[in-house]
Design brief:
Strands 2-3-1-4 form a 4-stranded antiparallel beta sheet. The chain is globular and about 50 Å long. The chain has a domain of about 40 residues. It contains 2 helices and 4 strands. By secondary structure, it is of the alpha+beta class. The longest helix is centred in the middle third of the chain and has 10 residues. Helix content is about 15%, strand content about 30%.
Length: about 90
């Protein structure tokens, strides 16, 4: 069984959390840029307009596609650190 994102059919088994920094000169296009990112599979989107940052989840295989969106300065996979059980 493969988990999918509702309404998209996207495989969610390899989803990663990302932080996307937008080019500040493109901040007036934030809505358009977010829409383009979501069309490429970004979900659970949280916009931080003041900082020109977007957080969300996306399939690990879609990172390069997000980087190719006009107005995107960088895409960084968020790291999660967990303690080891003793």
């Amino acid at each position: 069984m493969v988990a999918t994102q509702a309404g998209t059919g996207l495989d969610t088994t390899d989803m990663v959390e990302v932080t996307i920094r937008l080019d500040r000169s493109q901040s007036g296009r934030m809505g358009e840029i977010v829409h383009a990112l979501e069309a490429l599979g970004l979900c659970q989107t949280v916009r931080h307009d003041r900082f020109a940052i977007v957080n969300g989840s996306v399939g690990a295989d879609r990172l390069d596609a997000l980087r190719g969106v006009a107005g995107v300065a960088s895409v960084r996979e968020d790291q999660t650190y967990r303690t080891q059980a003793s």
